[in-house]
Amino acid sequence: MPPPFDPALAGSPGFIEQNPIPAGVQIYVPLPQFVGNDYYDGQYNSGMLSYATITVVDTDGVPIDSPVSYTETALRSTSSSVQVNTNVEIAQDGRIPDRIGLTSGVPRPATEAQLLSHKGYMATRPFNDTTTQMLFIGKSGGRTLTVISDRITSNARPISRDSQGVPNPNYSVTVSITSIKSGVVGTW
To answer: What is the reported pLDDT for 185?
Structure first.
């Protein structure tokens, strides 16, 4: 029978618990805009979309080594139209793009009239979507940072119209990180 693990032994569960990786995540979410014919996953998407930026940082908020892999799962959503990344391309500087939005996709580009109609529909249909998202950010050597975030997407009623008389959508997005957990001990 092997002796019990000393909690001070590097790599042991006790050591991992007492010495978490000094890493965190910053998520920058620009205000969503209406996009038309945004080509993604083999479809032309139109609707409300924001390209958030996810960066892995140390305890001082300084970006650290670039991730090598990234996957995402929508754990819970109040909308069936929530976007989840499937083809993520990590930028050279390690930033990860994250599509946050409510869009609908079609096999061919929409016409200008269809886009105007869709924009007006999105603008006048108030919604409040809550999504819990799990992010798996990987490094070489099997290191993985797991981040669970909550995001709320809402649409307030429009207060203005564009030059063609179409209501301007008034969107807001809030993202809060609920937990960060790492699978290894040490620095990235």
So the answer is: 45
For residues 31 and 173, what is the distance between their CA atoms, to the nearest angstrom?
7
pTM score of the predicted model: 0.70
Three-state SS for the chain is CCCCCCCCCCCCHHHHHHCCCCEEEEEECCCCEEEEEEEECCEEEEEEEEEEEEEEEECCCCECCCCCEEEEEEEEECCCCECCCCCCCCCCCCCEEEEEEEEEEECCCCCHHHHHHHHHHHHHCCEEEEEEEEEEEECCCCCEEEEEEEEEEEEECCCCECCCCCECCEEEEEEEEEEEEECCCCCC
Q: Tens digit of pLDDT for each residue in 137-150?
A: 887 666 778 888 88
- Reference 54, options 24, 21, 17, 12; nearest CA is 24
Inter-residue contact 106 to 118 (CB < 8 Å) = no
Answer for the pair 102, 48: CB distance below 8 angstroms, yes or no: yes
| Sequence-distant (≥ 6) Cβ neighbours of residue 85 within 8 angstroms | 70, 71, 72, 97, 98, 99
